[in-house]
Amino acid sequence: MRPSQEVVLARAAHLRVLRSQGHSFRSAAKLMGISKGAVAGLTTRHIRNVPDPRDYVMRPPRKRPARKPKAPPPQKVTLLPPKATLQGSVAQAEHEGWMCCWPTSSGRPWRFCSAAKLIGRPYCAKHCRMAWARPRDMAA
Fold it and tell me: Do 104 and 111 form a contact (C-beta atoms < 8 A)?
């Protein structure tokens, strides 16, 4: 149910007094027992001397979060020196981080190729060719 015209004009007069005393929309709404939206509507429709928005204190602009650094360019795949290459296979307990991760056993105990892996790849050159072989290369 809408309030009568007299009630609206009485609220507008009360709001005009509150605004002239320097009350914000929020404090005026709290004192009058109505919402901030109702105060804004009363101000717009019934009070002609709406305060200039340029009189409001401007907040400083928000700081944007720093951008994440771009990922480094991919490394070139190169072979380690031949002296680091071992022949054969090693048990899982003896496997080092620089060794090829290609499994050479079909079950437990797990054994892995002991050749030096390519930089940026998990396998040595031989097993890289096997892992990423193209179907047309397999036919030949």
Answer: yes
CA distance 79 to 30: 75
Peptide bond into 135 cis (omega under 30): no
How far are the Cα atoms of 125, 126, 130, 139 from residue 136, in angstroms, in the given order? 19, 18, 13, 5
What pLDDT sits at residue 85? 44
| pLDDT tens digit sequence for 38-79 | 888 888 777 766 555 556 666 788 888 888 888 877 776 655
**If we measure between CA atoms, which residue out of 105, 117, 112 comes closest to residue 91?**
112
Q: Which of 74, 70, 94, 82 is nearest to 125 (CA)?
A: 82
pTM above 0.90, yes or no: no
- Name which of 122, 66, 72 is nearest 98 in CA terms: 122
120, 77 contact by CB (below 8 A): yes
Q: Which two tokens stand for residue 127?
A: 């097993």
User: In the numeric block, which tokens belong to residue 51?
Assistant: 């305060």
Task: Work out the number of other CB atoms within 10 angstroms of the CB of residue 30.
Answer: 14
